[in-house]
Amino acid sequence: MRPVLIDADAFICLHGLKLLVPVIASLSRTRTVVLTEIVARQELSALAKLVTDFETKGLITIESLGKKSPAATLFRELRKTNDKGEAESVAWALHATELPLFVTRDVGATKLAESRRVPATDVMGVVVEACEAGGLSRSDAEAALAVWDDKGQQRCRPSPYPGFDSAYAERMEWRRNWEGS
Description:
Blueprint: E1 4-6, H1 8-16, H2 20-27, E2 33-36, H3 37-43, H4 48-56, E3 61-63, H5 70-79, H6 84-95, E4 101-103, H7 107-115, E5 120-121, H8 123-133, H9 138-144, H10 164-180
Parallel strand pairs: 1-2, 1-4, 2-3, 4-5
Helix pairs in contact: 2-8, 3-6, 5-6, 8-10
């Protein structure tokens, strides 16, 4: 199965929703879960202990580009117009052995990834991936995301959010498209 590359904003959202541990544990059973160096060491510095714990337990892999690699060259190009963590993530994705699924909640990062044909999803999409991997029950996911039923709640809430079942079905359709790419 394709690796899952998580951006800082999505990581922070999952943490705030109390879904980070079950999502990472579920995904890492069947896939490589990746953070890039800038995301892991700089953008997630406030969660450094958690990142280190995941890395030590083998639940995530932290990837760097190398100073003179083709990925590093692409990173420098992308960095001119994009956030450094997102630029590094997309550069790494395009030079990875297998094209990963990029998880972000940033519209600009999603557009960058999709413009380079990197499959991208949001927090809801990665929750669906974790449920489908079998390590997170759909009912637990729905309970954790019930906060999104309050339209005033904006913590990582996708827009529009038609409710858990409809959003789940929509992400399953997106998933069929990723698997084909």
